[in-house]
Every structure is written in structure tokens, then in C-alpha cells.
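Collaborator request, handled under Task 6.
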Amino acid sequence: MAVPRPKLLFFSYVCVLLSCKFLQIKSLSVGINYGQIANNLPSPHRVKWLLQSLNIKRVKLYDADPNVLTAFLNTEVEFIVGIGNEHVSSMVDPLKAQAWVQQHVQLYLPNTRITCITVGNEVYTGNDTVLKTNLLPAIQSVYQALVALGLDKQVNITTAHSLDILGSSYPPSAGSFKPDVAEYLQPLLNFHSITKSPFLINAYPYFAYKSNPGNVPLEYVLFQPNAGITDPYTKLNYDNMLFAQLDSVYAAIQAMGHTDIEVKISETGWPSKGDPDEVGANPQYAAIYNGNLLQRIEMKQGTPLRPYVPVDTYVFALFNEDLKPGPVSERNYGLFNPDGFPAYNIGLNGFLPPLTSDATTMAVNLVSLLIFTLIAMFLAREHILIR
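C-alpha cells returned to the collaborator:
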């Protein structure tokens, strides 16, 4: 059996990259959560090629990993970076907050596009009262650091919430926050209103279906055709649970006196595998949920309450993460396996390049850039317009 020569392999590799670049012209509107609680994930440099081949332009991190931010230098990808719960209380100190922003944000701008910082994750549904008390002062401290460094116009700041902050979510127009959470949320909402920063919510219809599959219609949670539910007060009809959940958050915010705050979905997804008691955790339902969700997002649909405002969504997650604790489902939310192959088919067939040394990776990048430049020059010369 003949063994391909290295030059031929190298040329084939570059051609695959070119194919991925030109086959998918339009960028996907959806964002992706890039978690890294695993010991078998590809390097950030390889992930960069995967995301570029998928034309995913928005990524949410749970930290500010320098390896990731460096790998995405001079790309069009926009990043949300995070300050973990374990670091929130220290951010109350203005000096520490400014040092963090300088080291993890300012250092990479403008070559890596960082547009948002999340301080903490689902803090108000936890049991740490000190953390809850410190969250808003930490957010304000980091915001003042952004102002001092002249970055507040290009980088906003927020925190992500679990849907469990709601005391009532049905019907959507009756949405309200739990009383013990509302005392923290009122001043936070005032901050969002002043700074024009988004309110982030982690929303998973899967959890509602898993906990009560007999009474929650599967079609309703999977964006499949169904009669839906009609809000008796607004008369608005909801054909899927995610949009109903989102509007219940809007209603809860409005009940606290604000109509000027945008709500974004910072996490949503469906597991492709679970424990025996995790009803619905399978690749079939995961493919239906995420596939239909992507269609809705690409159609730029709004919710019934805000039909002309496209739902800004980050899917959870890019990869299955084998070191996450908890039930089996926690390790199986990924659209992709760590080897770059889709966990199930929703039409996202990206390209993860093979393992190479750093020198080879740099060489490939340079050769790819040269070829793209030559192609562009040729097309310009021939006056060919690609649409």
C-alpha cells in the first residue's frame, strides 16, 4: 500500500481548510459555551479551526483562559470571559478588580475581541450568603475598573442566573422572582438599567421535562408542532417552553419596575446521554432540540412578548466534558465529542485539524493565508463576484 508523501498530506490539509472556509459563507447567529472541565479536549488552536469552519463567531468562556484568548488572536470571534464564583469576593477590592481587568481583558484587546465579562454564575440560587452579598459590589468594582481603563464602551459586565430565581413562571405574564432573591435583584436591575448591560439567564426546558414527563408535552419542549399554551392575561400563544421561560423573566423584571433591560439566554441545551432515571437524555431528543433551536435563532425569531427582538442565545455546550461531576447528563451536553466528530447530527459538520506541532501549525496558518490571498487576487483580477 502506497504511503502518501508528506507534501501531499500537507496540501490536502490546507485544501480541507479552504473548503471549510468557502462552503459555509454565512456566520451562525448562535453563540456557544466553551467549557473545559475535561482531560481529553483538543488544544485551543485546533478549536479555533473548528469554530471557524462552523462560522461560529461568539463564544462564552467560564474563565479567561490565556491559552484560548491567545489562540483566537486576530480572528472575528467575540468572547464573553468569566470570573468564577471562587474569585467574586476578592473583586470587591478595586485594586484587585483593576488588576484582573488589566491582566485578563486589556492585555488581549483589541486583537482578541472581548465584549463582555460575567462575574459569578448562578450565585443567587446557591447557599453562600456572603457570596450573594458580595456579587453586586464585585460587579460594580469591575465596572469601575473598565471605566478607569477606558474600556466600558466596548466591554459590558453582567452575571448569569439559573431559572430557579423565578418563584412563578406560569403563565409567562405572571413571572416573578422568589422573595429571597428579589432583595438582591432589585439593585442589580438598577445597575443593568444604568449601564445598559444584559440580564443573562440559563434556561433548560429539559429539566422541566425530566422532572415531569407525564405532564410536559415533549413537542412543546422540543420546538415541534403543537397547539402550545395561551397566556390567559395577554392572550399570547407559546408553541415552545424556552420562549415562555424567557418572557416570564421579562415579566418578572417588569414587575420590579424595569422595561429597558435586555434578557439573553447564556445557556440552553439538551443532553445526549443520561442515567436511567434521566428521562429524555438521548441523542435523538438532543438533536431535535438543538436543531430546531438553531433554526429559530437563524430565523431571528423573537418571543411572543417581544416578536421583533431576536432571541440572543448561547448553546451549551461545544464539547462533552468527561470530568464534570454529577449525573451522566452533566458530561454529555456537547454538540461535539473531543475528537471533533458531532455527538449527533444537526447539520454542523465542522473540521478539527489533526494533531500537529506548534511549528507545523504556524506553517499551515501562513500557507493558508498565502493561498487565501492569492485566490482573492485572482478573483479580483477576473472580476468574479461570489455571493
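The cover message to the collaborator said: "Residues 358-382 form the longest helix (25 residues). The CA atoms of residues 364 and 370 lie 10 Å apart. Please let us know whether this matches your experimental observations."
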